[in-house]
Amino acid sequence: MPKDAALTVTYSPRDLKYFDDHDLRGELTRVYDLCHGCRLCLHLCPSFPTLFNFIDKRDGDVEGMSRAEQDQVVDECYQCKLCYVKCPYIPPHEWELDFPRLMMRAKAVRKVSHEQSLPERISDTILGNTDLIGIVSVPLAPLVNRTLAVDSTYARSVMQATLGIASTRVLPPYAKTRFSTWFNRRQRTFVKNRRYSVAIYPTCFVEYMDPEIGKATVEVYERNGISCSLPTGAKCCGAPWLHSGEVEKFVRIAKANVKALLPEVRAKRSIVIAQPTCAYVVKRDYPLYLGTQDATDVSQATYDTSEFLMKRYREDKESFDLDFKGEIPSDITYHAPCHLQAQNIGLKSRDVLKLTGAKITVVTKCSGIDGMWGYRAKNYQLSKKVAQGLTKAIEKAPKGVLVGDCHLANYGITEELSEAVSHPMVIMNKAYGSADK
Predict the structure, then answer these.
(1) Strands 401-404 and 331-335
(2) Are 240 and 203 in contact (CB under 8 A)?
(3) Helix, strand, or coil here: 435?
(4) Mean pLDDT of the chain
(5) Which of 424, 434, 215, 412 is closest to 333 using CA atoms?
(6) Which candidate, 182, 214, 187, places its Cα nearest to that of 425?
(7) Taking Cα atoms as reference points, which of 231, 236, 175, 233 lies closest to residue 208?
């Protein structure tokens, strides 16, 4: 099989050596040695201090690391992707160091080698089926949300014992109505001065958990001459499968989503996603794991909600609606999620929120969630330790409204500070005075 142009042979799941454990161990040694000599990522996540301590205690002998030590470094990586921001050796550098994809490869090898515990396999399967869970949970939202609440001690204790999900982790609740149901039933408004057309790809977070984000996005966009459609057949982006090592399932889901999104792209509509993890997966992972032109075309047409809105503003400032008659916070503490920083698009949500006249304080610390990693009981205390930096940064900021793009990180902040966190599009819609109160 030919070498993938975008990935090294050991990072490409289409390479025959990808699932070879011996080859993996050699690549782990190579990359660990490079990281140990650089150390720029020391403070990004628990993996790096653990790695450096293992090597330092052997006076730099990276080859002396045991298999268990190598695997602990893998286990402590929660795919924040901030390595891509810090690392000077990522492709196309000749060393082709891609730490996050190497960690995902290690999990994929473990998956095919059946090295996971039974609770991990069960929880991966259940949490990976986000659409199935969402379809079942939305009609039963009051009951499901009571069951998932942290004060539902018996139910949460059972979940921890059987699925390994921390009983005290605050989980996002389900909505009573799906976003697509609202979108298809709504009374369509006439879009004045229409200049752009987009397809809102809600993914599971907006579709089943927080349709208000999708509603706010549609209303803000239409107010600014952007017509919105809903792609047919697009499901969860597949991130839970990818991050747990289920490469084949991820590729299958990615192919189906590209097929569903491609007609929108062919119709000259951009794809807009409100959640940074999902946007990252579509932008970066779909082209790399599928290796098709269709995946590349979808990737190049995909935007974060604030990213596209700022594109619209900069291309035609004169027609952009700056008539904010609604609720405008005087101070906003904005959390820039890791997967948004890793996209290297700048702080577009900060820029959008500034248009309202609000004073913005930016916090860039990690919440330590990353979906299933932060949900697991075995990672819970380490996740809480990671979140301390974020908590302290927010506490030092001026008292005001908390805003963040990432649904999971927002609930992590709520768990730490007992304060609600809003999506930027919800704040913008309120500023216009058109949000449902």
Answers:
(1) parallel
(2) no
(3) coil
(4) 92
(5) 424
(6) 214
(7) 175
Going from N- to C-terminal start, the domains of the chain cover 21-112, 323-432
- The residue assigned the tokens 């976003």 is 179
Report d(CA 62, CA 93) in Å as an integer. 22
Give the amino acid at 390: L
Residues 6+ apart with CB under 8 A from 32: 51, 55, 62, 65, 70, 73
Structural contact between residues 49 and 42, judged by C-beta atoms closer than 8 angstroms: yes
How does pLDDT run across 70-123, given as a tens digit for each residue?
999 999 999 999 998 889 998 888 898 999 999 999 999 999 988 888 778 888
Q: How many other β-carbons are positioned within 10 Å of the β-carbon of residue 303?
A: 21
Q: Which residues contact 26 (CB under 8 A, 6 or more apart)?
A: none
Category of 237 on φ-ψ map: left (φ > 0), alpha (ψ -120 to 50) or beta? alpha
Among positive and negative, which fits the CA dihedral 418, 424, 429, 430? positive
Fold for the domain defined by 323-432:
Rossmann fold (3.40.50)
The single-letter DSSP state of residue 260 is H
Residue 78 and residue 373 in contact, taking contact as beta carbons nearer than 8 Å: yes
Structure tokens at 434: 């058109």
| pLDDT at site 437 | 42
Which candidate, 427, 428, 423, places its Cα nearest to that of 211? 423
Please, what is the Cα angle at 343 between 19 and 179, to 5 degrees? 95
Q: Which residues pair with 168 in a beta bridge?
A: none
Which residues, in sequence order, are CB contacts of 343 under 8 Å at separation 6+? 276, 279, 280, 283, 284, 304
For 11, 74, 76, 156, the CA distances from 151, given in Å and listed in that order, are 43, 32, 28, 8
Q: Which of 309, 346, 351, 311 is nearest to 332 (CA)?
A: 351
- Residue 435: pLDDT band with limits 50, 70, 90: low
Residue type (1 letter), 341: Q
Helix residue spans in 267-331 (DSSP H): 276-280, 286-290, 293-300, 305-315
Whether the CB-CB separation of 199 and 270 falls below 8 Å is answered with: yes
CA gap 403, 332 in Å, rounded: 7
- Alpha-carbon distance of 236 to 130, in angstroms, equals 7
**Considering only CA atoms, which of 205, 344, 228, 212 is closest in space to residue 278?**
205
